[in-house]
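Researcher: Let's try something more involved. This one mixes different molecule types, so please make sure each is placed in the same coordinate frame as the others.
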Amino acid sequence: MTKTVFEKSIRSRPVYDELQPRPGTAHLCVADGEGAEAVCDLFAKAGTAAAEMLARSHIIYVPGPTGTDLFAKVQALGAAQCHRSPSFWAAEPRLRKVLADAHMGLQVYLAGTETLIGLAQRDVIEAGLPHDAVQTEHRGSLSRRVQCVHCKGITENVTTDPFTCSHCGLNLFVRDHYSRRLAAFQGVNIDAEDPGTVPPAVERFK
Amino acid sequence: MSVGAPRIDVTVAEVVQVNDLIKRFRFVRTDGGPMPTFSGGAHVVVDMDDHGTRRMNPYSLMSDPGDVSGYEISVRRDEAGRGGSLYMHRHVTPGMAMQISYPVNLFPADARAKKHLFLAGGIGITPFMSLMAQLQPMGQRFELHYAVRSLALGAYVDRLRDAYAERVHIYVDEKGEAIDLKSLLSTQPLGTHLYVCGPKGMIDWVKATATGMGWPKNTVHSEEFLAPPVGQPFQVELAASGKSIKVGAAQSILEAMEAAGVDAPYLCRGGACGQCETAVVRCDGHIHHHDHWLSDDEKASQTKIMPCVSRFEGKALVLDR
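Model: All components are placed in one shared frame. Result:
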């Protein structure tokens, strides 16, 4: 899959690049769905240094929100540790443990959906690395994790705009305004002035 | 900040000879009031009237940020320098009235850090004195690795050991001791931030080693104030103020502008902060940049200059000031 192209937006909206091998004492990759291919590309770019890099790599993989499961591909890379979890939430305790035991020199690579990247990046920031020390590459679904700014409930895998808040039922317009702390975009009530006047939902985040 | 910026009128309260090369100065407000609060790592610019020559040198504050009754700086005598440190050593005595700038911090502790790793060389210890005094009562994790030429020239070694015990590691060049940087950097927990202050060679070595070992750019902090280098005199045209000024051999462009009555911005006066960045309107010749602010590309393009430390060689230099 080619690199996802995002339209220019407000400053708060995360931007992604392509993963590049960097010198480091250990390497941690967290990926979901099609992000597996970005991880494979990363080690391909390392060329002759790939074997040495893999010997110090830990890969955590979860299937994507649309069911894509390319674990066999990342497993075939032969990293020192390669682990598959059914969901990010199942993988998170492992991720936190790896970060808690890590030393400076660890390189972090996140690939896949915005939700996976955002959630993993939040744990990395919590562990003390600056947010811009993490490399990220988007692959796969554009579905979003959105927080309702009214009830604060979070709806996962939002694909349409507007959508109905899964917690309070308000009709929400999905903004590009993003919170690194929550790892979520903002959803704002679209028919507050004129209840019931809701534009038709468009599938913006396939 | 610029020449017209507000300053603090101070009285020299104390001058202490720390060792053969270093003197400590304590300033209190002449009006008896409290000093502005500052944060660890901050510096002030000390204004000196050196027998008709105005000198403004930046010095790190080394006193406890919790103490607003006065500020302390330590000055290393530099015989080969332009004269600021010699003036401080020879002519500044208790009771003297002076002026200093408000504190500015270009070297603060990063509040996101889980641990602070401080590396000091020689007089580069000063910002860490205020940083550690600030972090200690907050219960923050830090450790200091401090390289000195000899124990006799190692300023504050005893004081630091008394205050911070095993968190202080001293390396004496004379005894052949050196920081084992690779081991030190490879054993730091995730979330450690690295801070280095000392001679240029040490800063370059630490930054290059950390980068090579995969430390992210924004976890490595350094501070080095450059003294404006001396060189051949040259002429500068100031397009905005319509003046033509001569920059003397031991003068910086910034000082020459100030002497000509041009109110130019500055903060650190040492090529570190970027405040004095000025656009180059025309450059027929070569700019010797010297600063730590502009990127390599910007330097090569010769379209920007840092008047506090940069010099010029050639036919004509026109600045937008």
